[in-house]
Automatic annotation (TrEMBL):
Gene Ontology MF terms: 2 iron, 2 sulfur cluster binding; metal ion binding
Domain annotation Rieske: ranges: 2-86
InterPro entries associated with the record: Rieske_2Fe-2S (IPR017941), Rieske_2Fe-2S_sf (IPR036922)
Protein name, as recorded: Rieske domain-containing protein
Alphabetical list of PROSITE patterns matching this protein: RIESKE (PS51296)
Organism encoding this protein: Acinetobacter gerneri DSM 14967 = CIP 107464 = MTCC 9824
Length: 108
């Protein structure tokens, strides 16, 4: 399994992006102690979500937000609840938090 980072690298209600070995760019965010990872691709135009580095959340840090047209996505499900791709979803990346505090990519 490939280690991506440590849990302390991703504070609650913040997000970080990572280039992973297969060339994909993903981001991980923490909400209520749980970690969620998605491909960094907006389902609307397949562009990267963030404009500023690691800025994946809206102003209230409640939803994931696409910086291009402002689509909002639920942190836990990746589902778009507002914007031009409403009803579509971000592509989830399977991760696991291990007892060593590392966040790992799950084997596909
Ligand atoms: S590209 Fe993300 S909302 Fe349009």
């Amino acid at each position: 399994m490939n280690k991506i980072c440590m849990t302390e690298d991703i504070p609650e209600r913040e997000a970080r992006s990572f280039d992973i070995e297969n060339g994909d760019i993903i981001f991980i965010t923490q909400r209520d102690g749980n970690f969620f990872a998605y491909q960094n691709l907006c389902p609307h135009l397949q562009t990267e979500l963030e404009f500023l580095e690691n800025q994946f959340l809206d102003q209230d840090q409640e939803y994931i937000q696409c910086s291009t047209h402002g689509a909002l996505f639920e942190v836990e499900s990746g589902k778009c609840i507002f914007g031009p791709c409403e009803g579509d979803s971000l592509e989830k990346v399977a991760i696991k938090v291990h007892s060593d505090g590392g966040i790992y990519l799950e084997d596909q």
